[in-house]
Amino acid sequence: MKEIIERLDPGVHQFWAVDVQQPRGKTPEKDYFMMVIGRYLDAFLPEKSVEEAWVCAGTSYLSAGSYKKDCNGLAVSRDVIGEAHLWRDRKLTRPTFFISDDLKAEIDAAGLRIFQHHKLIDV
Hints:
4 helices
């Protein structure tokens, strides 16, 4: 995953190696990393989103829930996203981060499993 993210978004995100201790002194079969997402965008478009899909929380927005029906109603700006593949949104704080279709395709091609995710409206 780290290699894919660094290839698609070079120099944007930070990674730190993590030592994983296993029982009986076993060594992990792969390396583990912590990541800090380094890109923040203002891509959320409440006016283009399904009204029931989001709620206003002061100066930010949240999806109305974490289910597919809620997230599928959220709209983001293709112009703002541009060539970004992994980002956090400054206005929309739930979901907490976003991935591009290209990053998802690379993850699938590598045979990796990821968290539950939902497709947003791309405007």
